[in-house]
Amino acid sequence: MVQKYQSPVRVYKHPFELIMAAYERRFPTCPLIPMFVDSDIVNEFRSEDGAIHVVERRCKLDIDAPRLLKKIAGVDYVYFVQKNSLNARERTLHIEAHNETFANRVVIREHCCYTVHPENEDWTCFEQSASLDIKSFFGFESTVEKIAMKQYTSNIKKGKEIIEYYLHQLEEEGITFVPRWAPPRLAPSAETAASCRTQAAALADALPEAAQKEGLGGEALGSASGAAEPAAGTPDDKLDADYIKRYLGDLTPLQESCLIRLRQWLQETHKGKIPKDEHILRFLRARDFNIDKAREVMCQSLTWRKQHQVDYILDTWRPPQVLQDYYAGGWHHHDKDGRPLYVLRLGQMDTKGLVRALGEEALLRYVLSINEEGLRRCEENTKVFGRPISSWTCLVDLEGLNMRHLWRPGVKALLRIIEVVEANYPETLGRLLILRAPRVFPVLWTLVSPFIDDNTRRKFLIYAGNDYQGPGGLLDYIDKEIIPDFLGGECMCEVPEGGLVPKSLYRTAEELENEDLKLWTETIYQSASVFKGAPHEILIQVVDASSVITWDFDVCKGDVVFNIYHSKRSPQPPKKDSLGAHSITCPGGNNVQLIDRAWQLGRDYSMVESPLTCREGESVQGSHVTRWPGFYILQWRFHSMPACAATSLPRVDDVLASLQVSSHKCKVMYYTEVIGSEDFRGSMTSLESSHSGFSQLSAATTSSSQSHSSSMVSRWRFC
């Protein structure tokens, strides 16, 4: 595999001629580069007017390699051929270099260029590019590649230092100005000029054919190495080394090269909006500066951003009022490193209510808007603090977290959000502070952590109880003056307090499916209508015994009875009941019956759980550990009011209930899933207990549960 390097533009704030005077002092050898032992001039040409000066040198290098490797290779020194072409008229110096030693096994090429700064003629720019292609090397290809890259990057770092050293030397000698080249008073004849051009061309042709390829060695060798001519472009197309340090941070030479090459590739091939340099760098860091991997995920992200108009989300999308009122998160100043600080009071948030009221689409869009705002704040803080800030800190308060937050559809939506954020906003989380983690937190962490990148997980700091107030706690990362009031600080935090989302704001699956712009094509919940004499049934096939069937449903209208049955044989394909026999139509909801009317309970199928009566407005969660493989049928049927005794009057509650159930129709929204028992235990809820209110948020919350030997059902009724 060919290794390539492309440098940023390095700027010397000195005239070109003075830089050339410093550069010439590096020959025939340079004490600042111990590996550069010596050099001999093998060809030289100077035009009569002095404007063109071409020098070809043979450079002797002592590579820092294991003695055994040198012995196997049979060499003590490595030789490079370097050609310097100075054009004093144009004020440019081009340096090309290639290896002479092992040229049939290893191909090293480099190209370096000194030019005048396009915006200041008294400054000088330097660029270099290089390539390394190890075809074969006695079975030590990988070792040689590592040694070559190590030597090269080490010398690149010294490049500017060496020029500065000789500039200082010139200054000590009283040389602070070198006049520019000027044409002689008597211009050469046309014949002489033609002769100069012919001689220069002949010298260029004398180089080996291999020198026409890309190259390695240049300024780093005492500029002893060479590659392809840098791509032409305006100064705005190139990255300045000082700009990288100021806005992107300290990068190694190879990291700078990866950034520049990926940026150039995007400019040449991508038709849409080019990401900012900070964002390109995030993708590279997330893939350990593997250009091919970073390019792949970035292209996918750019396509995704264009498809969903994410670049315009802050300007065109306004969060629904439900989010503004009940989403307990918001931006709050910055941490001690200058990173924007986002506060999320997850324990006070009704995750189920938000999902039911908004759907996954709106929640994801809101999280995307938070990330886009985070990118904007990072740019602002970079300018304010005068140093690169490319990520933010998130403070998550878990006080109030309980089993209700582990509601499986909500967790599934959270995992989807994490997946989208990880893919499109890599390396944006600088630190995650998790405070007041309750005992239930390990359960949530077990579910979520496998979907979080290893680099991201290392940024998590978790504090139980009030540990965050002690040494190594919050004060190490956030100034005392901005610690939120709900954590014992003095700063008023304007983050919403969350709370229960009223059920009156809940929306049906059909309503959520009608959203104009979808980020996901699937929904978690399904809706069904239940009629008197026409239950709704779903089929679940279980292959492995001891699997766990889980369910979550809300009774939106009327009262229903929930049953679970098992059959060894599959029912007939499900059919939609026209309900013609009942003279009832079924608009706005599905109704499917699976159990054949000819089937007999106890012979064709069996009941595996006691019937559970569920009242209107109840939310029901439960699970069943299967004993046998086969077919399981979950059934919701209409709950008829008990007949009143002839001698007694009907109760007021019964009359009111009968009036509420118009047309003998009920409606449920449900979600089911089958998982392995080993994945279920300790991950969602305990198989033994699932009592849960919603923290201390609502004294009106009550819970009841019904448990059997192999199942658990828990319900919440909100007043």
Q: Could you describe the 3D structure shown?
A:
The chain has 4 domains: 2-173, START domain (Alpha-D-Glucose-1,6-Bisphosphate, Chain A, domain 4, 2-Layer Sandwich), CATH 3.30.530; 241-308, N-terminal domain of phosphatidylinositol transfer protein sec14p (Helicase, Ruva Protein, domain 3), CATH 1.10.8; 315-504, 3-Layer(aba) Sandwich (Phosphatidylinositol Transfer Protein Sec14p); 523-570 and 595-640 and 664-681, Jelly Rolls (Sandwich). The strands form 5 sheets. Strands 1, 2, 3, 4, 5, 6, 7 and 8 form an 8-stranded antiparallel beta sheet that branches. Strands 14-24-16-22-26-25 form a 6-stranded antiparallel beta sheet. It is built from 17 helices and 26 strands. Helix 7 (277-286) crosses helix 8. The model is unreliable at 206-236, 516-523, 576-588, 644-662 and 681-719 (pLDDT under 50). It is an alpha+beta fold. Residues 521-674 form the GOLD domain. It comes from Phyllostomus discolor. Residues 221-233 have a biased composition (Low complexity). It holds the Pfam family CRAL_TRIO_N. This is SEC14-like protein 1 isoform X1.
